[in-house]
Amino acid sequence: MPTRHLLLAVLVAALWGVNFIAIHASLEQFPPLFLVALRFAVLAVPTLLLVPRPQVPTRWLLGYGLGFGTAQFLFLYLGMAAGFPAGLASLVLQASAPFTVVLGGLLLGEHLTRRRALGVGIAVAGLALVGLTRAQATSWLPFLLVVLGALGWAFGNLASRMAAPPKPLHLTLWMSVVPPLPMLALSLVVEGPSRIAGSLTTSLSAEAAPAWVGLAYTVVVGTVVGSGIWVWLMARHPAGVVAPFSMLVPVVGILAAWLALGEVPVPLQLLGGALVLVGIWLASRPAPTRSSPDPLPETERVPV
Question: Which Gene Ontology cellular component terms are annotated (predicted)?
Answer without folding.
Answer: membrane
